[in-house]
Amino acid sequence: MKSKTKQKITSKRINQIAALLCKIQIDPQEFIFDSEEANLMLINEALTHTSKQYEYNHEKLEFLGDAVLRLAASEFIDQNFPNMKVGDRSALRSQLVSDQWLTKIGENINIEEILEIGPKASQDSSALATLQAEATEALIGAIYECCHDLNPIHRWLKPFWEKTSKEVLNDPHKQNSKSALQEWSQSKDLKLPIYKLREQSTKHGDPERFFCKVYIEKKLLGEGSGASRKEAEKQAATLALENIKNENNLSK
């Protein structure tokens, strides 16, 4: 087994981290230079993938970031949609903390440019989205661990949450296609949709790892692919809804 190497933070790396913090509206002077060195180490840890085989990596901070993100998103929903039903809150929050959403946030700040990744992982282009999502979540965890305050998280993520919330509430079926397809089938007194999945590869992060077909009463309505079972089912349901809509338009 390959021994792990202790991280070393160069001046170049410090400048990279400072530039990243500026992108998410955090003053690097106050956050990492006027504070204990521990803050700098935590941010660096969040941006270090396991494939580097360093002593520290992003995994623990990603685990923390998952909980922090869900709490902050819950607070955002409570502050902006105080009269929303609990079930609708849960559905909206699932969109505000999804891996796809995290990937977009990571892309927005070009997080892949600062990630410390091992040679093998860096050559796997199909895993980029997963790496971005994981690192973004770890960064959220690191920020909270540094200051034990959700305000920096809200300041960074609120504009993105506002945009996503508007999209979800304007077209809830697009964001929750599986529920929409089930509602349609029930409204027509049909049986519930049946999803048939096939794993096409075992490659982690492969955007077409899983392939799914969705049927209602043995009729194939849609197909989809995704890096996860959930994503493949969602894509199949989305296409099914589009096909149903097109069939209805043709029959008018």
Topology diagram in text:
Layout lengths: L10 H13 L4 H6 L3 H10 L12 H22 L5 H11 L2 H10 L10 H4 L5 H20 L3 H20 L1 H4 L1 H11 L6 E6 L10 E7 L2 E8 L2 H23 L1
Antiparallel strand pairs: 1-2, 2-3
Can you tell me about this structure?
By secondary structure, the protein is mainly alpha-helical. The protein has two domains: 11-170, Ribonuclease III domain (Ribonuclease iii, N-terminal Endonuclease Domain, Chain A), CATH 1.10.1520; 177-251, Double Stranded RNA Binding Domain, CATH 3.30.160.20. Helices cover 61% and strands 8% of the residues. It has twelve helices and three strands, in the order H-H-H-H-H-H-H-H-H-H-H-E-E-E-H. The protein has helices at 11-23, 28-33, 37-46, 59-80, 86-96, 99-108, 119-122, 128-147, 151-170, 172-175, 177-187, 229-251, and strands at 194-199, 210-216, 219-226. It has a three-stranded antiparallel beta sheet with strand order 1-2-3, covered by helices on one side. Helix 3 (37-46) runs antiparallel to helix 8 (128-147) and helix 11 packs across helix 12. It is globular, with a radius of gyration of 21 Å. The protein starts with 10 loop residues before the first helix and ends with a helix.
Question: Which short descriptors sum up this protein?
Answer:
3-stranded antiparallel sheet; Double Stranded RNA Binding Domain; Ribonuclease iii, N-terminal Endonuclease Domain, Chain A; globular; single chain; 252 residues; mainly alpha; 3 strands
Helix proportion: 55-70%
How are the strands ordered across the major sheet? 1-2-3
User: What's the CATH topology name of the largest domain?
Assistant: Ribonuclease iii, N-terminal Endonuclease Domain, Chain A
Q: For the report, how would you describe the main beta sheet?
A: 3 strands, antiparallel
CATH architecture classification name of the largest domain = Orthogonal Bundle
| Terminal Cα span | 66 Å
